[in-house]
Request: fold
Amino acid sequence: MNFLHYEVDLKDDEVVEVTLDKQANVRLLDAANFEKYKKGEHHAYYGGRASKSPVRLPAPKSGHWHVIIDLGGYTGTVTAAVKVVRP
Reply:
């Protein structure tokens, strides 16, 4: 499984901004769901298929989060940049 992985620490009022060079799946996961994702198991996440860039995902709650970007099993590569936007 090919994917891009970024780790961010977020506060309640912050937003993760992901800039993509093409359509991709963008997921924001906690640690437990990231482990499930890596094992190919059912997992809960925020986000989904992104057809426009940038993608902005608000922090569901304060904590340590994993940003995952993948092509959903399709071949190819995607380039991404991730930043935390503070109010």
Q: What stands out?
A: The first strand starts at residue 4 and ends at 10. The radius of gyration is 12 Å. The mean pLDDT is 95. Residues 2 and 75 are 9 Å apart (CA to CA).
